[in-house]
Amino acid sequence: MKLLILDAGHCLSLALAREANRRTDTELVIEEGLELSSEQLEALAPDALVIPPLARPIRATPAAVTAHAEAVERCMEACRAAGVPLVWCVSDQLYEDGFAEPIDEHVIPRPRDESLRRLVATGDRIRAEYPQHLIVRLGPLFALEGSHAWLGELIDTLVVGEELRGESDVTCCPTSADAVAMALIGMLQQQHCGAGAWGSYHLAGTEPISVYTFISVVRTQLATRLEGRGDHRELGSVKALHHHHDHPLRRVLNCRRVLEVFGVHQKPWRLEVGRMLDAWCQANEACRPEREDETRP
């Protein structure tokens, strides 16, 4: 199976590349940006086109959101002309106000924010005009590297002693980019074999948690690992923010359909965070204890 991935520097694109490298049944072609012509698509002839999400669209400028939406629509038109399935990953932030209960796939986001509505309009157009699509709604992605790599950004801030802030009244399901990459390739392999299960799916980590608590867990686990390696640096602090005093916001995705249709299980974000922190410590020279022979005169 050959996949064409756009936005090469995105943390999800990098995760897809790592997952494909571990397999013998998947070939990736990765393009730098989001622009793609029909001629390019026909020449590459992939089995699917994958577009990573615009991370944190609530904080993005209206121009950036509009540019992303328009690029996705042009890709959809090219896919339709070439008969190539389209996979578009989107942020859970499109559910701007959240819901008291876990959000099912059939619930179309209806945000108040004009920029977010532009992304929803793109999703509506894809559903109406091109059946061969997967719209995959994701919880907040975290990874160690790449653009929008939330965990990497948190670590970088903590190790230089700067303060981190996170909402204590916003509950979400942090989602490992590596877990998403594994799930997407598995889903597309089944589609490639004739599953025909097109439509919208939710994919997120287990255990809903506030943004503030997630950041605090990252800080605690990082501190534990550093101390175990003899590194006693002072990490930055974590401060709780309160933006929804009257009505705490819950943005929790119900991922039952992706399990029922594709057999994809959600990965516990705590295990993924721990694994990534271990990898960061092993890769980061500052985290390694000095070897005995280096301490001798």
Automatic annotation (TrEMBL):
Keywords: Oxidoreductase. Residues 63-279 form the RmlD-like substrate binding domain. Its EC number is 1.1.1.133. The keyword Oxidoreductase applies. SUPFAM superfamilies: NAD(P)-binding Rossmann-fold domains. One of its GO terms (molecular function) is dTDP-4-dehydrorhamnose reductase activity. This is dTDP-4-dehydrorhamnose reductase. It comes from Halomonas campaniensis.
